[in-house]
Amino acid sequence: MPSPAIHRRHDPASQVRYQGAKRLASNQETVLTGTPGTLKKRTQSGKQYWVREYIRADGKKTDQYIGAASSIDEEEIRRIESQIELARSLASASSSLRLFGYQRIDRKPAAVIEMLANKGGFQAGLTLVGSHAYGVLLNELGIIAPGYKTEDIDLARTRPLAMALSNGVTFETLLRETGLQFAPIPGLPAHQASGSFKLPGAATLAVDLLVPGGETGKVLAVRELGAYAQTIPWLDYLVDDALQSIVLSPNQVIPVRVPSPERFLVHKLFSSQSRRKVDRDKTRKDLQQAAILAVALEEETPGKIQEAFDRLPDAARPAARKGAIATIKLLDENYPEAKMALEAISRKKRIWPQRVNSRTPSTPR
320, 294 in Cβ contact below 8 A? Predict the structure, then answer.
């Protein structure tokens, strides 16, 4: 009996829909918070004013104040209505793509990513990494594969961000602008600063700030955000040559920055062999994601994995080679291209394929 396919490709029609949503998302002046909502005129103490009534990520209905009716002309009203209509079109596109099997995140993590997009965080240099980035890459590559079960948001910052926060504003206060009550997770030991923020109680959503470092888990200051971050080896390699993409959510389509799929794959090979033995579930997830991306990349763009590995710093290569060997074990004979690509980078020395009839005959004069 043949083994089940490691992934399936989206049909051409749904891929066209995805690219259409991506182009449409680039037309947004801003990503509207929560549901698209409705433009309404309200009256208080005899004075009229305009609001956008919408539902927040926590399910509460609220008003976004726009301005006094006397100060907003018809042209401005049409502009705002156009924004709302665009947001409705994008929410509808996201729902359709979900039915086709595209990866989509939940409302609360989307609220964080939307806030960062509107603050210019991704334009300033933040990069979405981790499992949410993997979901984005599946969509970009046009493939259907086993999803990822996480709400956690991992954000990489490899150099000081080109964004200025107002006095007293920190990364924590930015997170709370979403209406979600994030608080720092106590460090280990307790007196150590934390680079992670979490919702209270049993809620599982956490946000981690990450920076490059020689070892995993050290905590360094990110001064421009008034926050701290955890170190991850070779994070700068991961996010170099990042690409612009989108995150799909129930209410929004949000422009983001994510690693290239080939660098994401190679970094997964490295990280799978750099984790502690107790992190077996994370190691297994790293290898599974690497296997799926290897198959997809070698089918569509052969050689990309090798190119990415060639740019990996020498010190990281031994661990990545071990990760490649472990990933090969997850692939059967149905994926010879991916296996050959991983076998090639698992060797310490490159074995070049022999050329046949490499000598070019002389051209007659």
Answer: no
